[in-house]
């Protein structure tokens, strides 16, 4: 059964690999599973056909036979459980990898997304600078904790896992902020993720969509 995922027809991330279908693409590339991509306009994302797959009208979604999933975290977890390559065989190591996956999505990502929201939507507010400072303080606290935990290790817990895939994907959202410059080991950690052949294939595939949309 062919796997089909959905993605933006015209991604607002400007081809930077930040749209959440990138995480699903990367996971599928890591486990060596082919997939098709159905591109959606913003209008189509709010129409009944897509809302039947994703009740909040977002991307990505995942379809395989009679299985339909939404939410990138759930989709990546499903891929990791079903295919070899993203979860360790050892039960305890497997549980730790899953813990790191959830940490990326529930502990690190919320303040990072808050910063993006503040930057894009609240810049004209009188309280913007104060809010931005508070959000960045929360981000630095989490990055300091993560930096201390990783130390000089290559990955979060032994070999590369789904936890690293999600963590790198989340941290990449800060790449152009300058904040990561304060944490050289985290910058090196992200660079290792970006250097993985599976990441490069996923990035190139997503960039090709943006390039085609921009020149079409």
Automatic annotation (TrEMBL):
The protein's superkingdom reads Bacteria
Q: Where is the GST N-terminal domain?
A: 8-87
Report the residue ranges that make up the GST C-terminal domain in this protein: 90-215
Keyword Transmembrane recorded = no
Q: Which InterPro entries match?
A: Glutathione-S-Trfase_C-like, Glutathione-S-Trfase_C_sf, Glutathione_S-Trfase, Glutathione_S-Trfase_N, GST_C, Thioredoxin-like_sf
Which PROSITE patterns does the record match to this protein? GST_CTER (PS50405), GST_NTER (PS50404)
SUPFAM superfamilies named among the record's database cross-references:
GST C-terminal domain-like, Thioredoxin-like
UniProt keyword annotations, A-Z: Transferase
| MF GO annotations | transferase activity
What family, per the record? Belongs to the GST superfamily.
Q: Under which name does UniProt file this protein?
A: Glutathione S-transferase
Taxonomic lineage is:
Bacteria, Pseudomonadati, Pseudomonadota, Alphaproteobacteria, Hyphomicrobiales
């Amino acid at each position: 059964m062919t796997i089909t995922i959905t993605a933006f027809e015209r991604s607002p991330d400007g081809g930077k690999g930040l749209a959440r279908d990138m995480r699903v693409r990367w996971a599928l590339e890591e486990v060596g599973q082919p997939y098709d991509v159905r591109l959606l306009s913003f209008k189509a994302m709010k129409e009944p056909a897509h809302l039947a797959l994703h009740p909040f009208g977002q991307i990505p979604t995942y379809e395989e036979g009679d299985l339909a999933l939404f939410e990138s975290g759930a989709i990546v977890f499903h891929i990791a459980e079903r295919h070899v390559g993203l979860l360790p065989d050892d039960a305890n190591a497997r549980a730790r990898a899953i813990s790191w996956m959830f940490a990326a999505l529930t502990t690190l990502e919320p303040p990072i997304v808050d910063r993006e929201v503040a930057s894009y939507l609240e810049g004209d507010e009188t309280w913007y600078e104060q809010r931005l400072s508070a959000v960045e303080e929360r981000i630095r606290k989490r990055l300091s904790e993560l930096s201390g935990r990783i130390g000089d290790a290559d990955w979060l817990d032994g070999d590369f896992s789904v936890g690293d895939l999600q963590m790198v994907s989340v941290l990449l959202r800060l790449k152009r902020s300058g904040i990561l410059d304060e944490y050289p080991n985290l910058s090196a950690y992200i660079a290792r993720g970006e250097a993985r052949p599976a990441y490069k294939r996923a990035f190139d595939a997503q960039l090709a969509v943006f390039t085609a949309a921009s020149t079409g």
